[in-house]
């Protein structure tokens, strides 16, 4: 109180006035910049919305074109959409591309194989595509001779797939090719699936060490580290059924003999039995069972 | 350190090229980083041998450690001379489930039973190949580590690749392999070459194979060197066809480097010379094709029109059957045909 009377009430009041004026300015400045920021954001969102709208339009027109393509026969290609011809061309091509990709995909899904005749009808070439989790992997081909006897002349199937045994098992003949191709495709797809799982484990789970694997990917031994105590656990997965991507037996070993018996690790083994390896490892990591 | 390990080390250091020495020692893993730092790799090989020799003595290493180092070097540099291929025949029921530990134990015990004083070292490489180093001795002498045999086998396949094996050792090795892999027999696969990776890629089908396709576009694009629209190639289609047939017969892209193909002919003379055609016995002759990359050369012959297309089965059998030694008799390619692979 003493100080105030010393400097003067009027002085103090004018000080306060100056303060409020400057803070008002400051606030106004702040508000201005905030308004500009928001305006810019609005513009950006508007642009984004317009782009998305255009994409939806294109998608819709491609879809209607596709639908009309499916219902028409192959030769009626005359109808075009309204609008400038360049856009229409591109849309039509996109729709056609979509249709062909879908057809190929469907063909492979229903178990179809690409077969062509070679050597003026005296030979056949069959391609088997492999895929896993929606990704197409390697493609394997076989060439057959139809005369004098029906036999395989050439192929690029790896030597650890028992081709001879499969031809005998399925009684492969010229007219009864389907059974053989079906079982071959099962073997190849399962092998490709197991190989892909191993690849994904090596890429995404570098904290887990792959101790042993083999060419057919029918055996996998992984080394896990338990967090906190850092005990190593060795896990063996046997894939004795060569047409499946999941193991037939999983067992764990550790120096701490009680560890594999505890419920945590029993549930881990169950996870590995019922899920692809890379997915099971992710789950185990999130649950905190392994590093 | 005894005399043998010292001499072995000396020979090994001399063999490994100077720039490969440090990486090989690092891969070996028996020397700590600190020790590796103390070694001056710019010294002469003689000095390096001395330095490593002292380290080995300090650590009390024996022959088996040095052979470990040798095996590591050989796995990365397998061009040791001629490699020969063998094929296992008639698998038993459990042949497809033989796994590494089982194979290792069985092979070692079988071989030691067949011959005393043999030293076996087995190592699995990251690409699933099982490398075996065998130093042979006999009842009277210690294993000779200066002339080891190297064997490579891929489990669940019937192929075995061998180098530096002499005729006395061959039946012993064959017996041990057949028992360890659960097959009934083993025979010569008639494929040999100086480059291990080439013969392996050929048999394991690890090169790009070309199959007939409805749409030949990938190869056509590769063929288009001239993009000038005013130049039209008259025989574009037939040369594209030849290229397709050549690639179907031999493969696309980079081909495994085989150095030779040998055809032993035992056929009757077919020609105009009357006295020769009247001979009863077949003419014996050997035709040998040699090149730095024979498959590449043959493919080029076919695609450029020097060899007629479709490619004759005599030539296309090389990659198809995976062999480069053929015996041709009047009844067709000889009795040593390999069966379709299993």
From TrEMBL, chain A:
GO terms under cellular component: Mis6-Sim4 complex; nucleus
Principal subcellular localisation of the protein: nucleus
Localisation per UniProt entry: Chromosome, Centromere; Nucleus
Region annotation Disordered: where it falls in the sequence: 1-36
Pfam families named in the record: CENP-O
Keywords noted in UniProt: Centromere, Chromosome, Nucleus
Basic and acidic residues compositional bias, start-end: 22-36
Family designation: Belongs to the CENP-O/MCM21 family.
UniProt name for this protein: Centromere protein O
Source organism phylogeny: Eukaryota, Metazoa, Chordata, Craniata, Vertebrata
Gene: cenpo
């Amino acid at each position: 109180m003493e100080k105030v009377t010393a400097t003067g009430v009027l002085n103090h009041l004018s000080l306060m006035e100056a303060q409020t004026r400057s803070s008002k300015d400051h606030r106004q400045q702040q508000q201005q910049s905030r308004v500009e920021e928001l305006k810019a954001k609005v513009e950006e969102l508007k642009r984004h919305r317009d782009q998305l709208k255009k994409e939806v339009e294109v998608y819709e027109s491609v879809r209607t074109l596709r639908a009309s393509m499916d219902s028409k026969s192959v030769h009626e290609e005359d109808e075009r959409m309204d609008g400038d011809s360049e856009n229409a061309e591109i849309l039509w091509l996109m729709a056609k591309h979509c249709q062909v990709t879908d057809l190929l995909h469907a063909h492979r899904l229903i178990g179809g194989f690409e077969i062509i005749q070679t050597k003026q009808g005296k030979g056949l070439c069959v391609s088997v595509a492999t895929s896993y989790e929606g990704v197409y992997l390697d493609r394997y081909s076989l060439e057959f001779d139809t005369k004098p006897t029906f036999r395989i002349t050439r192929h690029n199937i790896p030597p650890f797939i028992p081709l001879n045994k499969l031809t005998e098992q399925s009684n492969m003949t010229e007219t009864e090719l389907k059974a053989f191709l079906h079982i071959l495709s099962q073997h190849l797809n399962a092998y490709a699936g197991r190989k892909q799982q191993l690849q994904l484990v090596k890429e995404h789970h570098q904290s887990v060490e792959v101790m042993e694997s083999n060419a057919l990917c029918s055996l996998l031994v992984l080394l896990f580290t338990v967090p906190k105590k850092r005990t190593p656990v060795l896990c063996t997965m046997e894939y004795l059924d060569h047409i499946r991507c999941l193991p037939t037996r999983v067992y764990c070993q550790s120096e701490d003999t009680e560890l594999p018996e505890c419920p945590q690790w029993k549930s881990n083994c169950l996870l590995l039995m019922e899920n692809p390896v890379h997915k099971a490892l992710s789950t185990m990591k999130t649950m905190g069972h392994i590093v | 350190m005894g005399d043998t390990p010292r001499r072995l080390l000396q020979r090994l250091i001399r063999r490994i090229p100077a720039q490969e020495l440090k990486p090989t020692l690092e891969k070996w893993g028996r020397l700590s980083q600190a020790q590796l730092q103390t070694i001056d790799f710019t010294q002469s090989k003689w000095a390096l041998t001395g330095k490593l020799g002292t380290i080995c003595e300090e650590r009390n290493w024996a022959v088996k450690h040095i052979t470990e180092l040798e095996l590591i070097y050989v796995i990365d540099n397998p061009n040791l001379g001629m490699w020969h291929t063998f094929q296992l025949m008639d698998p038993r029921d459990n042949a497809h489930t033989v796994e590494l530990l089982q194979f290792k134990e069985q092979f070692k015990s079988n071989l030691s039973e067949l011959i005393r004083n043999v030293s076996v070292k087995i190592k699995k490489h990251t690409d699933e190949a099982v490398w075996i180093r065998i130093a042979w001795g006999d009842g009277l002498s210690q294993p000779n580590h200066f002339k080891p045999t190297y064997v490579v086998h891929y489990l669940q396949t019937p192929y075995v690749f061998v180098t530096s094996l002499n005729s006395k050792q061959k039946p012993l090795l064959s017996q041990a392999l057949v028992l360890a892999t659960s097959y009934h027999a083993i025979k010569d696969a008639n494929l040999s070459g100086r480059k291990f990776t080439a013969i392996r890629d050929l048999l394991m089908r690890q090169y790009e194979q070309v199959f007939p396709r409805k749409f030949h576009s990938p190869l056509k694009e590769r063929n288009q060197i001239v993009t000038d629209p005013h130049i039209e190639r008259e025989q574009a289609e037939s040369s594209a066809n030849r290229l397709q047939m050549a690639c179907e017969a031999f493969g696309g892209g980079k081909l495994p480097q085989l150095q030779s193909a040998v055809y032993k002919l035992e056929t009757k003379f077919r020609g105009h010379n009357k006295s020769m055609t009247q001979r009863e016995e077949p003419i014996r002759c050997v035709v040998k094709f040699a090149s730095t990359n024979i498959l590449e050369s043959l493919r080029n012959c076919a695609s450029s029109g020097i060899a007629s297309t479709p490619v004759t089965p005599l030539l296309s059998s090389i990659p198809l059957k995976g062999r480069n030694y053929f015996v041709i008799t009047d009844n067709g390619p000889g009795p040593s045909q390999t069966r379709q692979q299993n």
